[in-house]
Write a structure and sequence with these properties.
By secondary structure, this protein is α/β, with parallel strands linked by helices. The protein has 12 helices and 9 strands. Helix 2 packs across helix 12, helix 3 runs parallel beside helix 6 and helix 11 crosses helix 12. The longest helix is centred in the middle third of the chain and has 26 residues. The protein is globular, with a radius of gyration of 18 Å. It starts with 7 loop residues before the first strand and ends with a helix. The mean pLDDT is 92.
Length: 294
């Protein structure tokens, strides 16, 4: 489970983030705590340390972008893009863990001063806002609830309300991303990240076994069974797509893309949110193909 569990450091403003300067058999971080992206020819790209000279591309989001579940730095989405599917420029892994859309935007704002010219920003996100939408209004504040902000409530808002609230927050913070991207001269794309029940109606037997084991020690199924359906995933995607269209931000639903790209026996997920090495490789391939990245 080394590739699955990470100890996070308390951080002002962000709440929590990876420790800087970590090097384990599974993952490495730069001085700020961003994951290292290994590239062709032994090169590497980081936010805070070394990287090739010139412009970069940024892959932003939360734990799926960080690469929870990947067996090493080279198996993350950004690394697969740089090494194989879109190798023209380095990809920076701009991700924390368990962040909502406000924290993702704040993370970029706090560390953008360390960036060179940015050509492309791909924001792979959306699930955490919907997960956190189950919390009551008094825990939502002005900018959305965050993980570990209080005990789980006894009652849950209706599913339609959860989707509406998560959509509003995601699009509100996407406005900030667009303004930053426009100022940097970078193309911004929003990609709804994959969630296992939004990709396949039924998981593979090995995925189902993992999900069941995790359900014994976590509360995902008990708390989020209402959003873990294909219908909810598609409804959420439709709302986000409409909002992105209004903002002039290209939109992609990775759930549909994975469903179309994966073989019937491809093992994609280690839990409902995080992928296997094969799953992350397929995500990278679909990003490159559908966004026409080279």
């Amino acid at each position: 489970m080394e590739h699955y569990t990470f100890v996070l450091e308390d951080q002002p403003y962000l709440g929590y983030f990876q420790y800087g300067g970590e090097k384990t058999p599974v993952y490495s971080t730069d001085r700020h705590g961003f994951r290292v992206t290994p590239g062709p020819g032994g090169r590497r790209a980081t936010v805070g340390d070394d990287r090739p000279a010139g412009p970069v591309r940024v892959l932003a989001g939360s734990s799926a972008v960080f690469g929870v579940g990947a067996t090493g730095d080279a198996a993350t989405i950004g690394a697969r893009l740089w090494n194989t599917y879109a190798p023209r420029l380095p990809w920076l892994n701009f991700a924390g863990q368990s962040h909502n859309s406000a924290q993702e935007l704040l993370l970029f704002t706090l560390f953008q001063h360390d960036l060179p010219d940015v050509e492309e920003i791909v924001l792979l996100s959306g699930v955490n806002n919907l997960v956190l939408s189950r919390l009551p209004e008094e825990q939502q504040g002005r900018h959305g609830a965050f993980f570990d902000c209080g005990p789980a409530p006894d009652t849950v808002p209706p599913t339609e309300r959860r989707v509406e609230h998560a959509t509003e927050l995601t699009l509100r913070h996407l406005v900030g991303w667009k303004r930053l991207a426009d100022g940097l001269g970078a193309r911004l794309t929003f990609v709804l990240q994959p969630l296992a029940p939004w990709v396949r109606e039924e998981p593979l037997p090995r995925e189902a076994a993992l999900f069941a084991e995790l359900d014994e020690v976590s509360n995902f199924r008990r708390f989020h069974n209402d959003i873990s359906t294909m219908a909810v995933g598609r409804a959420y995607a439709e709302r986000l797509a409409a909002g992105c269209g209004t903002l002039g931000v290209p939109f992609m639903d990775m759930n549909v893309a994975l469903d179309e790209a994966a073989g019937p026996q491809d093992w994609l997920f280690i839990d409902r949110v995080h992928c296997t090495d094969l799953g992350y490789d397929l995500v990278a391939r679909q990003l490159a193909d559908r966004l026409e990245l080279t």
